[in-house]
Amino acid sequence: MNGKNSTTAPQPEISAVSPSGFISAISHEKEKTMQSVTVTIKSVYGNITAYPACPTASLFAQLLGTKTLTPQALKTIKALGFEVNQKTADLIQL
Q1: What is the residue extent of each domain of the chain?
Q2: Nearest to 35 by CA among 52, 19, 20, 57
Q3: Which of 12, 38, 67, 80 could bridge to 53 as Cys pair (CB 3.0-4.6 Å)?
């Protein structure tokens, strides 16, 4: 011993996190803060279409290379953990 009173604070345990554990931790964090996507539902030539109505929805449409989001795209967005909110456009202008 060197004559000094050596007391050390307990060190926190460091554990390795597997990639699946990391992804699991991220998904649990997403569950706490639900992200949302908003689309505007319009009828165009008798077809119901979903147009992006928020920046996140616009990014999804840009990623897909389309101006609208298909029902399959909206299902996939939901599967990614996003809440899809719909707002309807005013069909009659007064």
Answers
A1: 34-88
A2: 57
A3: 38
